[in-house]
Design goal:
two-stranded antiparallel ribbon; mainly alpha; 4 strands; 12 helices; about 280 residues
C-alpha cells in the first residue's frame, strides 16, 4: 500500500520535495472505495454504529486513541486488552434490571434498543464485569467504580449524577467530535499539480509527426473522447463509423484488399486475425 502511494506521490514531479503536501493530495484525490469520507459521513457512521459488535482489533484501536489522544501519560491499552486486564464494557447494561428500568424511565426499552452498543454507552475498564448489572450509582461510586478509575474517559463518566439517554447521547456526540475533528481529522493540502499542456493536430496536417507521441483524447464531430492509447482511439473511431454505417466495415472485411494491405486489419472471420476485436 505504501509503495503504491509513494509511486503516486513521485509521479507529479519525480522528486520528494513537499512530500507530505503531495501525499495528502493523493489521498484526497482517490475515488470510489479508496476515497476519504466527508466529515459528516464519518460522524454519522461512527455515531450510529454498533461499536461493541465491531471486530476486537478495531475496537481496541478506537478506544486506545480515545483514551490516549492528547496526553503523554498514556495507558498501554493494547496490551491490557490482550491480556484481558482491560475490557470494553457497557455502562447501561446488556440486560435491564428493575433498577435500570426505573433510572431510564418509561422509554427504557427503546433507549436500551437504540443506544446499548453505541460508542456513548461503552467504556474501557478493568472492573466493570464484576458489577455489569449494577446501578449507575454502584458503577460510579463503588470501590472499583468510575470515580476511582485511572482512565480519563471513566473520570468524565464519574462526573455525571445519572445515566440516561441524555447523558449517553451527550457523551456519544463528544466522542464522535473528538474522533472527527482531532484524532482522525482529514488531511489538508495546498498542493496543486501542474497543469499539463498538450499539443494538438488534425488530420488535415499532412506533415504532423506522431511517432513516439502519446494520445490523451481525440475529437470526432465536435465531441471529445478521452483515450488511453492510439489503439484505444482506433477502437472508438471504428465503432463510431460502424454505428453510423455498417457497410463501412463490411466492405474491407468481405472484399479483396490484399493489394492495399487492408486484409491484415479487416476480416469477417475471427480466426483470421491475430487478436480480433
Amino acid at each position: 500500500m505504501f509503495l503504491n502511494l509513494n509511486r503516486e506521490v513521485l509521479r507529479y514531479d519525480h522528486t520528494t520535495a513537499d512530500y507530505v503536501n503531495k501525499l495528502a493530495y493523493v489521498l484526497l484525490a482517490k475515488k470510489e472505495s479508496g476515497r476519504f469520507p466527508r466529515d459528516d459521513e464519518f460522524s454519522q457512521a461512527l455515531a450510529n454504529k454498533a461499536v461493541y459488535q465491531m471486530r476486537g482489533k478495531y475496537k481496541a484501536y478506537l478506544f486506545e486513541r480515545l483514551e490516549n489522544y492528547g496526553t503523554v501519560e498514556t495507558k498501554d491499552v493494547y496490551t491490557l486488552l490482550d491480556n484481558e486486564t482491560y475490557s470494553i464494557e457497557h455502562i447501561m447494561p446488556q440486560h435491564l434490571t428493575p433498577t435500570w428500568n426505573q433510572e431510564l424511565g418509561p422509554e427504557a426499552e427503546e433507549i436500551h434498543s437504540i443506544w446499548l452498543h453505541r460508542l456513548g454507552n461503552l467504556t474501557l475498564t478493568a472492573y466493570n464485569p464484576n458489577m455489569s448489572n449494577g446501578s449507575f450509582q454502584e458503577k460510579r461510586d463503588g470501590a472499583k467504580g468510575f470515580k476511582n478509575s485511572g482512565l480519563r474517559m471513566n473520570q468524565r463518566i464519574a462526573a455525571k449524577n445519572q445515566w440516561g439517554m441524555a447523558e449517553i447521547q451527550e457523551r456519544n456526540e463528544k466522542m464522535v467530535a473528538l474522533a472527527t475533528q482531532s484524532i482522525w481529522a482529514p488531511p489538508v493540502t495546498t498542493f496543486k499539480p501542474a497543469v499539463k499542456e498538450f499539443d494538438t493536430c488534425t488530420l488535415d496536417e499532412e506533415d504532423a509527426e506522431l511517432t513516439g507521441r502519446y494520445i490523451v483524447k481525440f475529437s470526432y464531430r465536435n465531441a471529445e473522447t478521452p483515450v488511453s492509447s492510439w489503439t484505444d482511439m482506433f477502437d472508438h473511431v471504428v465503432k463510431y463509423l460502424h454505428g453510423e454505417d455498417r457497410t463501412i466495415l463490411a466492405a474491407p472485411a468481405e472484399g479483396d484488399y490484399e493489394t492495399e494491405n487492408l486484409g491484415a486489419y479487416f476480416s469477417s472471420k475471427p480466426d483470421g486475425m491475430r487478436t480480433p476485436l
